[in-house]
Inverse folding.
């Protein structure tokens, strides 16, 4: 009997181990930003016992591309399954949204206090006005004595002073209440822009593993999330005396995925993942030479062409499109391939930023520095007097760096003085 109980216990333990499921903490360690999406890499450490386990990474962005999930790891375990699921929330999980909701609740309590102050002041004001009407309502047939002038002056002074205090309190309380209402409206708009609602959805990655030997393990989970992006931005500083050009290569990065990128290694890519990897196929065009029909002469009953037929055919041939004049067996030009490149058709470049960077999920542009260059240049003055009375200083600068310059806006300074905004076209590296 003991043997059976022990056997059942062992089987029960194995079944529990086979269906063990637990949430694990993960941290974003690396992000590669493209022009319309980003590849996020998370790291998770764990220490599990022998058996099968289901590890769940929860509260991931809803914009994850389900076909982009990759899992790598190290440790004595075997990966058996990776599954992406959607979970609909009944409460807000974003830290930023929680802060906004708590602030709104605090302001709503504050506005109640000012509304109470307004009501109390208005009630007191009505009370003073009622007393004033009662004192001044003495007329013929009334048994109430008429106040002497000294009492009247004292009453008017009291009335004026008290009403002035009450009106000042009302103005101040109403102003504070209005300011709070405006702040609450601003917070509501920010919460709405964050996408908070009662049906907010988050993604969860379920990773099934089999622990071969008890001990520590590590997982690297990467996925693509839509929405983030970046664009180049330049600051050009020209030294008028030394004729030197300093160019600061910067990037404007934004994201609103619902998760903050805090102290992560960041890379910026010029690749175009949105472009299909399938090579386009050209459909053939079939061209035939035009053959003019002979013109029948009105004086001849036969099929002899008229002398006017030759010049007419020549005239019509001259009016033909060029495509029609191409011989049928002439070779077509080679097909042009569209590759993942920048707009100037340079090859894709990956900028790896130094140090750690933080981009919070606020959909605001955050400026990060890619590099700073001291570039050689030649300066000359140019003017067009017929069209403008100004002379322009032009710098012919050579890009001798290893970085290609992508198309983007520039801010130009001359001797530390802001001059104007410009635009830099694509310039390949030297």
């Amino acid at each position: 009997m003991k043997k059976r109980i022990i056997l059942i216990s062992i089987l029960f333990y194995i079944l529990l181990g086979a269906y063990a499921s637990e949430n694990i903490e993960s941290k974003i360690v690396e992000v590669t930003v493209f022009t319309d999406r980003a590849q996020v890499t998370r790291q998770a450490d764990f220490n599990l016992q022998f058996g099968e386990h289901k590890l769940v990474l929860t509260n991931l962005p809803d914009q994850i591309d389900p076909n982009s999930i990759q899992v790598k790891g190290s440790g004595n375990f075997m990966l058996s399954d990776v599954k992406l699921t959607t979970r609909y929330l009944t409460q807000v999980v974003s830290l930023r949204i929680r802060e906004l909701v708590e602030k709104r609740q605090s302001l709503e309590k504050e506005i109640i206090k000012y509304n109470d102050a307004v009501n109390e002041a208005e009630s007191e004001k009505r009370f003073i006005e009622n007393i004033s009407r009662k004192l001044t309502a003495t007329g013929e047939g009334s048994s109430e004595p008429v106040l002497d002038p000294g009492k009247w002056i004292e009453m008017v002074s009291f009335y004026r002073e008290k009403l002035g205090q009450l009106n000042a309190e009302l103005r101040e309380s109403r102003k504070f209440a209005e300011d709070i209402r405006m702040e609450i409206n601003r917070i509501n708009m920010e919460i709405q822009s964050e996408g908070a609602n009662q049906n907010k959805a988050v993604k969860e990655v379920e990773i099934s593993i089999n622990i071969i030997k008890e001990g520590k393990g590590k997982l690297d989970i990467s996925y693509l999330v839509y929405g983030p992006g970046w664009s180049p931005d330049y600051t050009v500083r020209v030294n008028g005396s030394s004729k030197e050009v300093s160019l600061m290569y910067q990037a404007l990065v934004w994201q609103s995925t619902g998760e903050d990128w805090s102290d992560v290694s960041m890379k910026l890519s010029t690749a175009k993942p949105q472009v299909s990897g399938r090579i386009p196929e050209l459909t053939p065009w079939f061209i035939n030479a035009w053959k003019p029909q002979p013109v029948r002469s009105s004086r001849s009953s036969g099929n002899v062409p008229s002398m006017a037929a030759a010049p007419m055919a020549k005239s019509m041939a001259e009016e033909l499109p060029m495509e029609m004049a191409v011989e049928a067996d002439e070779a077509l030009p080679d097909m042009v391939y569209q590759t993942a490149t920048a707009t100037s058709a340079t090859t894709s470049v990956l900028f790896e930023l130094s140090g750690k960077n933080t981009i919070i999920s606020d959909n605001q542009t955050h400026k990060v520095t890619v590099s700073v260059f001291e570039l050689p240049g030649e300066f000359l003055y140019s003017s067009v007097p017929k069209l403008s009375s100004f002379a322009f200083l032009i710098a012919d600068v050579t890009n001798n760096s290893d970085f290609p310059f992508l198309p983007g806006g520039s801010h130009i300074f001359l001797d530390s003085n802001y001059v104007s905004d410009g635009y830099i076209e694509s310039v390949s590296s030297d």
